[in-house]
Amino acid sequence: MADTSASTAVRTSESTEIEDLRRRSWALSAYAEGTSALIHARAPSEFYSSVCEAVVTREPFIAAGVMLLDADLRLSVVAKAGPAAAYFDDLRLSARADHPSGMGPGGHAARSGEPTYMRDSLTDPRFADWRGSAARFGIRSTVSVPFSRDGKVLGLLSVYANLPDAFGPEEVGIFSKLGDEVAFALGLEEDRRRLEAEREARQSSERRYRLLFDHFASGIIFTDPEGVFIDVSPTFCRMLGRSAEDLLGLTADDILAEEGRAAFDQAREAFRASGEPSSLRRCLLTRADGTVFPVDLSVTMLPDKTRLSIVTDLSQVIEAEAAREAVETRYQSLFQHASEGLVVGDADGVYLDANPAFCAMVQMTREEVIGKSAVDILAPEEWPLLAGTRETFKTTGSYTTPRRWTFRRKDGTTFPAEFSVSRLPDGARLSVVRDVSEVVAAETALAASEARYRGLFDQGPAAVVVVSAEGFYVDINPAGCAMLGVDRDAFVGQAVDAILDPDEQLMVSQAAERIRTEGVFRGHWRLRRFDGGYVSTEVVSTLLPDGNFVSVMIDITAREAAQAAQLNSEARYASLFDFAPVGIVLFRDDLFLDINPAGVALLGYPREAFIGQRLSLVLSEEDLKNVPRDLEDLYRTGSAHRVLRLRRADGRQVPVDIVSTLLPDGAGVSLLTDLTDRERAEAAERAAEETVREARAHLERLGRTAALGEVMTVLAHEVNQPLAAISANGEAARRWLARDPPNLSEAGEALGAIRRDVARAGEVIRRTRAVLQGRPSERVAFDLNAAVSEAARLMRTEQRRAGVATILDLAEDLPPVRGDRIQVQQVVVNLALNAIQAMAELGEPPRLLTLSVARRGEVAEVCVTDTGPGLPPGDVDQIFDQFFTTKAEGTGVGLAIARTIVTAHGGEIRAEPATPRGARFIFTLPLATSDGDAA
């Protein structure tokens, strides 16, 4: 009785151990599939789906899902897979400890950051709220493992099994590692996106800088710490009438006018002492033709101790200021001596100034008038009418009286007057008041009207031009002559179309049409002055009663220049401090003119030591022989492209892709791209190829015959994809870099893809060599089921390529067999590859490969069955003879070696036809006994 109990206990213990091994095998298989899926996934959504699908490839795992944790501690399902995946549809979970939805394993795992598992859903009280739904889908046990990054839980991987107690501590640990792999893959994707965004920002910055430097309205100068010009913009060259070649190497002293030198020297000493940004107003420079012109100059010290100077030509501004001063002088003369009363008011109508004529009209001093308004000088009966005039003024910006108004003097007496109000450019109001007390009928009214017109026409600050209905200039006021730079006598009588450009003629004709249809035209015109310059104006044109046209024009050139300068200043401030990410070198013939900071970093020469040196500084004697030919090609075609190894300041050779372009002034510019990373990638590619060759040679030694050529097919197919990708990306990178200009962005992406594919090829080789690694034959006990499963996975690529489906039929409770595991797997691979090739040649489905393992008494039996064309006619046994083959390119030794291996292990091998078609190869191996000998 005691013996029976002991035997039962032993069997129970063995059963438990076998069950533990089986659970661990399930978990490890899921981990391997999940990790493999992560390697090939390209985006987070693909990460999650691939892992879930990999976990449920075999029972007892019937459902797997990935849930992400949001800021409100809710868990949302983002991927699911498995026969019971519908269980997730109505699942509502959270990580809150005070909510029922957070009481289960998932909520605890998300809250604590630790894996949580449930042994049995029918008995575990934590699963009470989900027990009914789990029972409908056959769920008995579950594990939830969190995945985190930087200590923060991002989400959960939850796996459900149809058996109770399917997750022991070791299985939980395996799935926790899979969760860590998910977090790691997610982090890599986030890092990749961040790096891509940074790369695009750098390229955009360089484009903005170059566009600003070449087209900036003000001149730009870069000088070294000693004040020597090391780079000048095209705008600055045009200011001085000199080329960049003439200016480089000069200093400010070489272009300063003598009359402005003292002020400049004082400003320069202040800048050297403080190092703070400074500016100098109205500095005088000398052009190449000897003429002097004024500029505003600002200087800023850059981090590399070079100086950035912005030079703004003030010639037109000063001319505009002079014109404004002349207008102001004329205005004051008109204001003080005009016979009409002139009053200037603010935007609210409060009087700011009054001329003597107006003061005499109302019998007040200027001081008494200032601060009053129209209400104070109009008779009370006129007050109700003021609202209408104000509304008209707000709408049109001007008001001209259609009637006589009654004004009050200081002594209370009244007098009739006419007045008009116009809005000045600064927003103030100019009122012209004409006392008509002495006017007698129409003569006096006509005389007064003509006086007002001529006074405003001759002395007004705005330009006024009168054109007849026939298209001839009738009159122009002094302000108009000054604006257009013309003499009145030479102007009046000219035909409009005789002195206007075609574009100006079009403007005038369009304005005339608007005036005829609408009575008035308002717009902006850019007019050509008679000295060749241009002036921007605001124009108001109207039709006079006599059929003539009158246009009032206000010069807005200075205002537009100020607005443009403000916009350009903001853009300059945002862009000038960015630097090119590639080296840039300026040269003429074989002499270096300049190099940018990226070029200094690439070649290691300080800028001041580089400028003025010859090409021999960085080129070898062999490359220098090709310089005349390269320069000839550059001057002939305008561009050139070479890849050379340049000599750095420290003597190290660096591979550089050089794209050169000829500039309009005859100098050349070269873009230098460091190819060190690309050469490293190519070296890595060669190393990968060498690794493949070593692996192939190693497999050949394992087989010791040509039969291992079949096994090498597995390795070749496994690494062929990454090697093909490496080759394609390498060719793509070469093409991108060969473009003019080179596409550095696309080339960088191709080189990055090469690095990833090299790593993938190495991983494939490492995994394959672990199975096929040659070592001295060692007879040990091993799991035949596991060995056959590994051999099947090794041939997965060949199976997919041939369109073959594989069925694994493994034996339950199969004791270990004793032998050389690798040699046994070689037999399985040889037989299976023969079957796959036979079915591929058949050319029609179904293509089904069955690998089965069974126990037959004291031996284990392995059977390889296919649905191919079957065995050759005649004696079936002769297919195991040396050099017998039915394949055109076969060696006839594969099956002979298989028989040798099986026989050496104490087993037998045979072949027979399969039903309804195909062939079946069967071999046996003795089972291992407890004392280490075969049974």
**What is the makeup of the main sheet?**
6 strands, antiparallel
Structural class: alpha+beta
Q: What would you call the quaternary organization?
A: single chain
CATH architectural designation of the largest domain: 2-Layer Sandwich
Average pLDDT, rounded to a whole number, is: 79
Secondary structure elements and pairings:
Layout lengths: L1 H39 L3 H12 L5 E9 L4 E8 L11 E2 L10 H8 L3 E3 L12 H6 L4 E9 L2 E10 L7 H47 L3 E5 L5 E4 L1 H7 L3 H4 L13 H14 L3 E9 L5 E10 L5 E7 L1 H23 L3 E5 L5 E4 L1 H7 L3 H4 L4 H4 L5 H14 L1 E3 L4 E4 L5 E10 L5 E7 L5 H19 L3 E5 L5 E4 L1 H7 L3 H4 L4 H4 L2 H17 L1 E9 L5 E10 L5 E7 L1 H19 L7 E6 L2 E5 L1 H7 L3 H4 L10 H4 L2 H11 L1 E9 L5 E10 L5 E7 L1 H28 L4 H31 L5 H29 L7 E3 L1 H11 L1 H7 L2 E5 L7 E3 L1 H22 L5 E9 L2 E7 L28 H11 L4 E5 L5 E8 L9
Parallel strand pairs: 29-31
Antiparallel strand pairs: 1-2, 1-6, 2-3, 4-5, 5-6, 7-8, 7-11, 9-10, 10-11, 12-13, 12-17, 14-16, 15-16, 16-17, 18-19, 18-22, 20-21, 21-22, 23-24, 23-27, 25-26, 26-27, 28-30, 31-32, 32-34, 33-34
What's this entry about, in short?
With 935 residues, this protein is α+β, with helices and mostly antiparallel strands. It contains 30 helices and 34 strands.
Write a concise keyword list for the protein shown above.
935 residues, Beta-Lactamase, six-stranded antiparallel sheet, 30 helices
Task: Explain what you see.
The chain has 935 residues and is of the alpha+beta class. It has 6 domains: 4-193, 2-Layer Sandwich (Beta-Lactamase), CATH 3.30.450.40; 216-320, 2-Layer Sandwich (Beta-Lactamase); 338-441, Beta-Lactamase (2-Layer Sandwich), CATH 3.30.450.20; 460-555, PAS domain (Beta-Lactamase, 2-Layer Sandwich); 559-674, Beta-Lactamase (2-Layer Sandwich); 779-935, Heat Shock Protein 90, CATH 3.30.565.10. The strands form 7 sheets. It has a 6-stranded antiparallel β-sheet, sandwiched between helices. Mean pLDDT is 79; it is low at 572-578 and 703-711.
